[in-house]
Amino acid sequence: MWREIREWLLTVEEFEEFYAQTVTRLTGQLYVMLGDLYEAQDVVQEAFVKGWSRRRQIDREGRPEAWIRTVAWRLAVSRWRLRRRSADAWKRSGAPPHVAGPEPEQVVLVEALRELPAQQRRTLTLHYLCDLTVDQIAGETGLSASTVKTHLSRGRKALAHRLDDPSIEEAPGV
């Protein structure tokens, strides 16, 4: 009777115990239903996440395992529908045009850019790839114009060093 009177709320420990006792069984059940182990693992995990945020209602009928299983199944069905709609859309619009892979020089440049700090990499990309001015970059990133110029200067210097091209260091315009 006490259980019916109080609002049911799993503690962290109770939820962890519930998870530990049921995750393997639920994953196995969903694997059989779906025929895809990775998909089963993924939807069961997502269902447990949803269960944690709704733990006040998950056991109203005393069947939390059924709730998790049902949510996992519905997640899988939703994913199937999304994939089917995507496939149908591709069929209607035709195959995407062929896009050539990157040239070796582009691969080397991207590798060199990866070695830079994230903000320098972003600033260089916005300036040289997106063709934004210093003021536009400052507006988009929230940095001051002088900070943008500093990132551009330091980024060019670092790239010149990494790419062994001293002409990059002296790029005009900034």
TrEMBL record:
UniProt signal peptide: none
The organism's place on the tree of life at top rank: Bacteria
Alphabetically ordered keywords of this record: DNA-binding, Sigma factor, Transcription, Transcription regulation
Domain RNA polymerase sigma factor 70 region 4 type: 109-159
Pfam families: Sigma70_r2, Sigma70_r4_2
Family designation: Belongs to the sigma-70 factor family. ECF subfamily.
Cross-referenced NCBIfam families: SigE-fam_strep, sigma70-ECF
Name this protein carries in UniProt: RNA polymerase sigma factor
Organism per entry: Streptomyces hebeiensis
Organism placement in taxonomy: Bacteria, Bacillati, Actinomycetota, Actinomycetes, Kitasatosporales
